[in-house]
Design brief:
alpha+beta; 5-stranded antiparallel sheet; 6 helices; about 45% helix
Length: about 160
């Protein structure tokens, strides 16, 4: 199953979005039930080599390095300089949205871990899980109506494919 991470690249005030996804060759992906023990193992020990394949612009990459080379090439073509801001796409399909992070989150963590190391990946992840609720004017509504929003998303009413 493919889960999407969106990498946002700016060029002179414009925004160019590069979509990067991973295909988990051993997991359930976004559609199946979450295997929390598997998620914990990946969080503690990292992603085993060869488990993920990556997809961007309809191209499949067998390694993280190949996929990121493609992303960096696109970013450079759009005059990106410095770090590339990124955000994960999706919402939790069930459970508490503050703890169940939804589509793209595993890839977001993987990129952080590969670029900055394990400890910074955890720090950025924890900040990313909670900080949006302090800045988002609709956060209270979203948390209060999480189950309703999750049902709409699961039933396809909020699916933007």
């Amino acid at each position: 199953m493919v889960e999407v991470l969106i990498i946002v690249v700016t060029k002179k005030g414009d925004v160019y979005i590069i979509e990067l996804a991973f295909i988990d060759t051993q997991g359930t992906g976004a559609a199946g039930q979450t295997d929390y023990m598997d998620s914990l193992k990946v969080a503690i020990f990292g992603v085993p080599d060869g488990r993920y394949k990556f997809k961007s612009d309809g191209l499949i990459f067998n390694t993280y390095e190949q996929a990121m080379n493609h992303v960096y090439t696109l970013a450079k073509a759009h005059r990106q300089t410095g770090s590339i801001p990124m955000a994960w796409h999706g919402t939790a399909r069930s459970g508490n949205p503050m703890f169940v992070q939804g589509c793209g989150f595993p890839l977001y963590f993987n990129i952080l871990e590969k670029n900055y190391g394990t400890i910074p990946a955890y720090v950025y992840t924890i900040l990313g899980m909670f900080f949006p609720y302090f800045n988002n004017p609709t956060a209270f509504y979203e948390i209060q109506h999480a189950t309703e929003l999750q049902n709409l998303y699961t039933e396809g009413d909020l699916n933007y494919d």
